[in-house]
Amino acid sequence: MLSAKMVFFASMCYSLPSIILYCLTMTVIFKYGSTFNSSFFVLYLYDSLMNLFTYTVGFYMMRLNSVTCEDCGFSFLYKNAADYFPMNFLTAMSYHMAYVQYSTTALISFNRMTVLWNYKFFEPLWKRFTWLIGFIVFALPFIDTHRCFYYKTDIQYNNETESYALVTPMPISDNFEYLIPAMVIITLISVGVNVHSLVTLRQLKSQKRNHVENNFIFITVITCFVQFLGCFLSVIRVMWANNPISGFLASILPFVSDSLTLVQPWLLFAFSTLMRKKMKEMIGIPSTKNGSVVIVRSVTN
């Protein structure tokens, strides 16, 4: 089994480039707002902010703490942190953001489906209300995750592993009591919406359909697979909470969470020629090709 340091450095190998790419894509969208003027990119910005926040919480709670010893340079972030910051908030956010991530993925799928239905009607609505909907998506999970604030989260130092851990007396089964059903339902909705959108795409003329459909299928398969895998592992972990395999699953879940959190900028970079072109332009790399973002508006307009 890999040591904590090896796991940490392995995660940093893909995390740092992903965070840099997040920042670059977001900057490009802001800088060239008239070019990336669609509800999809507004949702991308919202999703990016949520994912970066999710990663930051996970990095503090499950990554950096595992390689921070009592005399290490970053130990000040854990030694007396509970005196200055409510650790209960971080515990709540570690479950809260799972709701937000899964819901946002479903929201983006729903955006694609409705815009395909009727671009002229739905696109202005999405542009106008995306941030309001995003706020609701972020706020609603507090109906469940507020329970985490009733349990005091302590930061404990383990002499054997020479690392810190955030420990809460809240049973893991209570943490997942409502989260697991929500993850299953949201994942099924995402799959259903994406399948419906795929059927809708098949109604497009073949010349326009081939390129767009291939990209759509690829993105859908990645998103749905990561959602399904995360949901499956979470269910097994709760069902076998007292089984030794639970610890193994707990070590895998952060990587699955990282996949859902960090894959978006890579997909945008891979599938948007215009994003790559504008990114090169922004950082001063000459580009000779005229890129474009393939946007299928709808089958009715």
From TrEMBL:
Q: Where in the cell is it found?
A: Membrane
Q: Name one Pfam family in it.
A: Srg
- The source's superkingdom equals Eukaryota
The question of whether Membrane is a record keyword is answered with yes
Q: Which UniProt keywords apply?
A: Membrane, Transmembrane, Transmembrane helix
Question: Which terms under GO biological process does the entry name?
Answer: sensory perception of chemical stimulus
The protein's predominant localisation is membrane
The UniProt similarity line reads: Belongs to the nematode receptor-like protein srg family.
What span is annotated as the signal peptide, if there is one? none
**MF terms (GO), sorted A to Z:** transmembrane signaling receptor activity
Sequence intervals crossing the membrane: 6-29, 41-61, 125-143, 178-195, 216-240, 252-274
Quote the protein name from its UniProt record: Serpentine receptor class gamma
Keyword Phosphoprotein in the entry? The reply is: no
Membrane disposition = Multi-pass membrane protein
Q: What cellular component terms from Gene Ontology apply here?
A: membrane
